[in-house]
Amino acid sequence: SQQGEEDPQALSIQEGENATMNCSYKTSINNLQWYRQNSGRGLVHLILIRSNEREKHSGRLRVTLDTSKKSSSLLITASRAADTASYFCATEGFTDKLIFGTGTRLQVFP
Amino acid sequence: DAGVTQSPTHLIKTRGQQVTLRCSPKSGHDTVSWYQQALGQGPQFIFQYYEEEERQRGNFPDRFSGHQFPNYSSELNVNALLLGDSALYLCASSFQGKFAEAFFGQGTRLTVV
After folding, report:
1. Interface size, chain A vs chain B, as Cβ–Cβ contacts under 8 Å
2. pLDDT per residue over B15-49, tens digit each?
3. Tens digits of residue pLDDT in B36-82
4. What is the Cα–Cα distance from B35 to B88, expressed in whole angstroms?
5. B66 at the A interface (CB within 8 A)?
6. Closest CA to A91 of A83, A105, A106, A102
7. Do A88 and B43 touch (CB under 8 A)?
8. Which residues of B touch A9 (CB under 8 A)?
9. Which of A90, A97, A102 lies closest to B58 in CB terms?
10. How far apart are CA A27 and CA A110, in angstroms?
């Protein structure tokens, strides 16, 4: 079963614009991670935020976590065509399983 | 430094057959997790191997089994294949039984006909 649900399911933007994706989850977590997947191949780890953190940055990525609302957001600033991919949130809970959301398909047009 | 390698990349099998998928973890990693990703869905956790034992298991039937070897590589076996087993099978490696910041292979695309 999926732990998280991402919103929107699909997002289309122009190069240079910002892209925001949201993730909601159901149970308590140790950490939340974001992954990128190009063309249905392997996933690439982007960023991890722990349950006691509220915001984290990595390059053009900004992740927020609100454990009271069981939600997270991923912001990609100044998007590039190369950012076109599917983005997944994944939660690691106390059962030590990594559970993925349903994903957001991002299309960045040149 | 080789990352996570999976073989084969593509596979076509007939319903009822058995299949074995292989994974070599990233150098320095000792834990392997397997995921099934159906088209348009997020990966679903199958099981995790650490210290040659299955530590965690997702909601998959016993037709799905695995093994981890002393060199930390792993195999995923699926018996009595069903059409619904068609998916991308992903292997992820990590350290000491953890899931954090896992490194994924490129996956094996299994088609059951």
Report:
1. 68
2. 999 999 999 999 999 999 999 999 989 999 999 99
3. 999 989 999 999 999 999 988 999 999 999 999 999 999 999 999 99
4. 8
5. no
6. A102
7. yes
8. none
9. A97
10. 39
